[in-house]
Amino acid sequence: MDERVHPEVRRIADEIDTMEIRGAATIADAVARALRTQAQESDATDPEAFRGELRAAARTLYETRPTAVSLPNALRYVLRGMSSTTVEGLRQNVVESADEFCARLDRAQADLGHVGANRLRDGDVIMTHCHSTDALACVEAAVEQGKHIEAIVKETRPRNQGHITARELHEMGVPVTLIVDSAARRYLNDVDHVLVGADAVAADGSVINKIGTSGLAVNARDRGTPIMVAAQTLKLHPGTMTGHTVDIEMRDTDEVIDDETLTELGNPTVKNPAFDVTPPRYVDAIVTERGQFPPESIVILMRELFGEGTTEPWVEP
Questions:
Q1: What pTM was estimated for this model as a whole?
Q2: Structural domain containing residue 75
Q3: What is the radius of gyration, based on Cα positions, of the chain?
Q4: Which residues are annotated as a binding site for substrate?
Q5: Are the C-beta atoms of 197 and 231 separated by less than 8 Å?
Q6: Could you name the active-site residues (predicted)?
Q7: 183: number of Cβ within 10 Å
Q8: Boundary (domain end) residue, out of 82, 109, 136
Q9: How many domains does the chain have?
C-alpha cells in the first residue's frame, strides 16, 4: 500500500471492495469525497508531489472495482480540474471539483427519477433485480406524483441485494412481493415493467448489470414486458467508444458457499461472476437525468459528454 495514501482513502477503498459501500452513485460520491479528504489533508510541499499523492489515492480507489464505471468517471471529474501551479491552488481545485461533482450527483438522481416516473402509470406493477438507487428514484418520484405502484422483487443471490430493495420500497409505501430468482419468468405476466439499474452502459447500448439481468431481459422480451434501465450518465462507459471491452468482475467463492460445504461436495469449481451483459435489443429505454434514450442512440449522448475517448488521470505520466 502506498504510504502517501490517506487512511480515510484506504478505508473507503476497503469498504468499496467488500461491498459495504455499494451502488454506482454511492460509490462515485464516496470516491469524490475520499479524493477531497486526500487533498485537504495532504502535506505535500510542491505541486508535483501533490499531484502524485492524488494519483496514488485515485489508483487505490480505482483498483477496487474494475467494472464500476461510475468510479473512474468520478475520478476523472475530480482530477481533471487540477490546473493550478501551486499546492494551495491544486488543493482548492480538487475540493471545488469534488463538491461540484457531489452536488451534481444529488441533482442527477432526482432528475432521472422524474424522467423514469413518466413511464410508470398509476396501478403499474414493476419487477426489480438487485438494488439500484437510480431505479428506486423512478419509483419514488412516481409515488410522489400520487401513483399507486406495486413491486415484485427478486432476492438476487448470492448477496440478496433484493432484500435492500424490498425494504426501501416498503418505506415508500409500495406493496412488495419477494420472490426467488428462479421464479421470475412465472410472474412476468403480472408485471407492467421490468425496472433495473446498470453498473455500466456501453457505446452500443449494451447494459452491464448484476448477474441475472440478461436472463431476466430475455424472458421479459419473450413475454412482451418492457424493460427500462435507469442509469445516470456517470454510468456511461466512454472507453467502449474506442474499442475497449468491459471486464466482468469475478467475486469470491465464499459469497456462494462456505469451505465446509464445499469440501462435503467434493470441492467442485465455483464461479461467481458479479455482472452480465444485456444486448441492446432486449432493452426498451435507458433513462438518464438527461432524458430517455433508445439503447442504440446512447452513443450520441456519450460523445456529447466525453468526446471521442477518455483519459486515465490516475496513471503516472
A1: 0.80
A2: 7-109
A3: 20
A4: 22-25, 65, 209-210, 235
A5: yes
A6: 130 (proton acceptor), 199 (proton donor)
A7: 13
A8: 109
A9: 2
Average pLDDT over residues 147-160: 97
> Which residues are within 8 A (CB) of 22 and not within 5 positions of it... i.e. 6 or more apart?
131, 161
In a domain, 229, yes or no: yes
Tell me: do 104 and 211 sit in the same domain.
no
Question: Which one of 109, 133, 157 terminates a domain?
Answer: 109
Which residue is catalytic, options 29, 111, 134, 199?
Answer: 199
Q: Residues 30-57: what's their mean pLDDT? A: 96
| The three cell numbers locating residue 7 | 487512511
235 in Cβ contact with 69 (< 8 Å):
yes
pLDDT at residue 68 greater than cutoff 90 = no
**Residue 130 designated active-site:** yes
Residue 313 in any domain: the answer is no
* Bond before 158 cis per omega within 30 degrees: yes
Tell me whether residue 138 is one of the annotated catalytic residues.
no
Q: What is the pLDDT of residues 260-317, one digit of tens each?
A: 999 999 999 999 999 999 999 999 999 999 999 999 999 999 888 876 666 788 888 7
Average of pLDDT values for 129-150? Answer: 97
Which of 124, 130, 134, 138 is labelled catalytic?
130
Write the CATH number for 73: 1.20.120.420
More confident: 116 or 67: 116
